[in-house]
Amino acid sequence: MNHTLVALVEDKPGVLTRVASLFRRRAFNIESLTVGHTDQTGVSRMTVVVNSSETDAERVTSNLHKLINVIEVTDLAEAPSVVRDLALIKVTASPASRSEIMQLVDVYRARIVDVGNDSLIVEITGDEDKIDSFVDVLRPFGILEMVRTGIVAMARGTSLIPGSNGNGNSNGNGNGVH
Amino acid sequence: MKRTGAQIIWECLVHEGVKTVFGYPGGAIMPAYDALLEYPVHHVLVRHEQGAAHMADGYARVSGEVGVAVATSGPGATNLVTGIATAMMDSSPIVCITGQVNSKLIGYDAFQETDITGITLPITKHNYLVTDVHELTHVLREAFYIARSGRPGPVLVDIAKDVQQATIPDWEYDDSPIQMTAYRPDKSPMPKDLQQAAEMIHAAKRPVILAGRGVLMSGAMEQLREFAEKTRTPVAMTLLGIGCFPASHPLNLGMMGMHGEAWVNNAIQQADLLLAMGMRFDDRVTGKIETYATQAKKIHFEIDPSEVNKNVKVDSALIGDLRETLGKLSAHVEACDHGDWIEQIDEMKGDSAVRDIMNLPDNGHLYAPHVMSDLQRYTKGEALVVSDVGQNQMWAAQYYKHDKPYTYITSGGLGTMGFALPAAIGAKFARPDANVWAIAGDGGFQMTQSELSTAAQEGLKINIAIINNGYLGMVRQWQEFFYDKRYSATPMHNPDFVKLAEAHGLAAIRVTKREQVEDAVRQAEETEGTVVVEFQVEKEDSVYPMVPTGADLHNMIRRPVRVMEEE
User: Fold this and answer.
1) A82-152: what fold?
2) Residues of chain B neighbouring A62 (CB-CB closer than 8 A)
3) What is the mean pLDDT of each run of 10 residues along chain B (567 residues)?
4) Per-residue b/e over B326-343, b at no fewer than 16 CB within 10 Å?
5) Which residues from A are below 8 Å from B187, CB to CB?
6) In the CATH scheme, what is the homologous superfamily, with its name and number, of domain A2-78?
7) Can you give the pTM of this predicted structure?
8) CATH number, domain B366-537
């Protein structure tokens, strides 16, 4: 089973190295790691997917907390969440197969973002299962190239990652085992 | 006021209360060394930067204050690495300041450039590279704050040479409270957790306290003692916990683990509750995890949440500063009496006494345990003992009993040979009135023996006991037990340690018989300046008891009763 952890970190040079170094040093096996900006200046958000049959997610969380630049770590397994992965897939498209591909694109609510003479680039967003399934149906046409961003995730409803709302109210609780 | 980056370094150190630093100059740190002459900070010139880090570490361990090491870029910085890793494993608060090449040259393989922040990433609590003089003050303030707060540890600050040379025209020291977005070291246990722990304590029939270095770092000695006395709970100590509970206290069990006393390990294996205080269930303490204290519930008093459930699954975790936690817990805890249990442990001791070398007939040979025991007697148990790593360390831990805290330091987690001499020098600077005894084997001593020059140059008074058995003794012991006595690369051809000391202008004494020990100790203590005492001990003695790696904690190799009589 995969665990999705969200870490808010200070946007400073070397922070990604510190996180990566920690994973290597503790032999944590990571399925994916994505980093991006948040709405707050100086704060980046990392989404870490851990295969919990190999790596104890709680250990990852508590060790991430020890990094001086890590503001907060939340395990999204504890609440319902929206999980998204984005893929760009370049697929062979002859004049004969093109319309069939376009139908599949519609079914999966993907988008065609580039059209070449013999190929298409398709963009799809969704959870990993949906993308895996889309890749499977495209494979017979000939996938030339593919890139996936890795998972980003957010808890459903109004619940916030502590520290992500910028007003600091939910930020002061340093107690207990996270 | 106008200040250069180099001056700001010392301004900040003085504000942190630093009076002594240990270091070695070189190109990229020269501006800082030039400015040093204007500040009331005593610089101890080491002979190798590893020594500087160990001295800072020794200073920190006996004073509770942050120790400081200074080195230049490149090889100066990389030579610190072993000392930093040592401090990291034992949570010792040190700040290492390294010079770095000019910031414009970073990344261009300039002369003596090395990526020391990259190299030390996994062995520091945190580190910084400073390339802008305006960041220097807050970085140094944060470095000291991080080093000493929460679970302490080493912090490295790498400062580019041009930052040291740059000037701030209107610099002022910023003494506002430190604000850090992400780092929040102050944690406290929840009241419901305290209540739950108290219930477990009241339900226990056979409790044991496992006291570690966290007790010393938190300053929770008094609270531990009150708790132990109120609940009549025996106290076992880790190697690094020695001194946190008086050895002469009736509730003291002694040291646990690989070379712990048999009754201590057996008591732990039979306990129904373990109260782990400021210790981390190291493999040297638990033996085989699967069979470790299987009947016991476990309460972990710990400041670092990542230690909880790391090696041993626990039933309750009280996260926070130990002194504060024990203070709060005492309100929930009622007096207990475990008379039967204590009696039961006493019975376990009987067999051990028979096997103790102290109680075996004296065959005229000089044994290291006798040296330790006699050393304790003739120093009235009041010495500040700094041991190295290996057999000497275990014998020192077993046979020199400590009643006071911060009187025994050693490299536990990393097991760094060569630690004793430099750490003893650092300890002496922190506690000039202490009677400091460094204890090292012939192997470990030679790893950092160049620091004899440092002690001589500083006119320092410490005593150095070299336990010379002509072997890398602990490795030899393992070879004897587990490698069919094939002594691969363990016999040592040593220098004449007496002449070596004399070459440094230091006094030296050689001891080959037990009856010479008393005189040697007295003579060493009465002599001005550092004295080297070489104890030529039994060459192939072993440390007992011993739990082989990966064995059950209760399956110990015991000292054979007859061996000494046969010799």
Assistant:
1) Alpha-Beta Plaits (3.30.70)
2) 305-306, 308
3) 98 98 98 98 98 98 97 98 98 98 97 98 98 98 98 98 98 93 90 96 98 98 98 98 98 96 96 98 96 97 96 97 97 95 92 82 89 96 98 98 98 98 98 98 98 98 98 98 97 98 98 96 97 97 95 92 54
4) bebbeeebeeeebeebbe
5) 174-176
6) ACT domain (3.30.70.260)
7) 0.94
8) 3.40.50.970
